[in-house]
Amino acid sequence: MAKYGVMQQSHTWVSPRSSLLPSSVSDFHGSSLNISIQSWRRKCQPKETAIRVMASSKNILVMGGTRFIGVFLSRLLVNEGHQVTLFTRGKTPITQQLPGESDQDYADFKSKVLHLKGDRQDFEFVKTSLAAKGFDVVYDINGREAVEVEPIIDALPNLQQYIYCSSAGVYLKTETPPHFEVDAVDPKSRHKGKLETESLLVSRGVNWTSIRPVYIYGPLNYNPVEEWFFHRLKAGRPIPIPGSGIQITQLGHVKDLAKAFIKVLDNPKASKQVFNISGSKYVTFDGLAKACAKAAGFPEPELIHYNAKEFDFGKKKAFPFRDQHFFASIEKAQRELGWVPEFDLVQGLADSYNLDFGRGTFRKAADFTTDDMILEKKKKLVLI
Asked: Which of 166, 141, 380, 135 has the alpha carbon at shortest distance from 273?
């Protein structure tokens, strides 16, 4: 099995921002809704845009198009006039109607999307089936290891662009955040497979683009990010937060992420480039809990702070975020791609709640085991 070294970026762009904690840090307030350049163009130049889209229509393969990111991305690609094929194992429904989506819109989408059933770990099948289709562009949403990507490149020698979903988790921990695309990466991170994939794309001379999200949230999120808070808010429980609660993090809405994926398609400025994608503001852990409550219409919650080192939670995860400052600059994507996140934090959390959890749908049932451990210890300390 081949091993690939960590990619070293050659560009030397440096942000003018120099302060340790940027002015955009917020307890929970977000920026006002911004109208994207793309939507402005559609309103002002509908005929010219339609001609452009049809003229540049691509035969696109989406690896991982049935969960979360891929669901929203595939909608946008079909709406842009591209032929979209979803590569899946076929163990779950190929398409699903989005919350709030009309029956007609869903029927239109379902009739246009194609499906290729297979396992991406079956490398010979991947090579054979993809070579026969001759895709122009690959969106790889669920690739984790370089060995999973190499057969795709082998099968498509005339590939125009490989657009990869990486992660901001690849960056080496720093004392001077936010992370920029030129920052050092951690070859020992749990996302090292994504780094090796980026390195493979470079070594093979592919026209690639890598997107590095921070934390992603929004309707259909299968990671317990906002859902973790919503469960506790609905149950009227205190929210346990590790440390002081002033740790700063960053969330990006899935719909904004999907639009960023569209922005890099066939874009010369995205060729062989990495882009951080997330929300425009940062937020503290305490502020996030309050933002979730405000977005969902719950009273401001009671926050309980604890020292995680005093507990043995076993294999259970007591909090959905890494206990540290973790946020990234999105200035490069804004400057080079003209991409602007449309959701501020509270607005985006409200969108997630109203279209998902608020309707009674969620990915994981509530589990307050670790909360009870924390609250019990706090109670004992009070009694002493």
From this structure: 166
Task: Give me 251's structure tokens.
Answer: 């969330």
The two beta strands, 215-217 and 248-249, are unpaired
CA 143/CA 164 separation, integer angstroms = 8
What is this structure's pTM?
Answer: 0.85
Q: CA-CA distance, 158 to 184, in Å (whole number)?
A: 32
DSSP letter for 357, please: G
Residues 6 or more apart in contact with residue 382 via CB below 8 angstroms = none
| Share of residues in the chain with pLDDT > 70 (%) | 85
> For the domain 25-55+160-383, what is the CATH superfamily, name and number?
NAD(P)-binding Rossmann-like Domain (3.40.50.720)
| Average pLDDT along the chain | 88
* pLDDT band at residue 380 under the 50/70/90 scheme: confident
CB distance 68 to 220 below 8 Å = yes
Cα-based distances in Å from 123 to 92, 94, 119, 147, 263? 21, 21, 8, 9, 30
Query: Per residue, what are the HEC states of 182-206?
Result: CCCECCCCCCHHHHHHHHHHHHCCC
Residue bearing tokens 């906002």: 226
Q: Domain-by-domain residue ranges, the chain?
A: 25-55+160-383
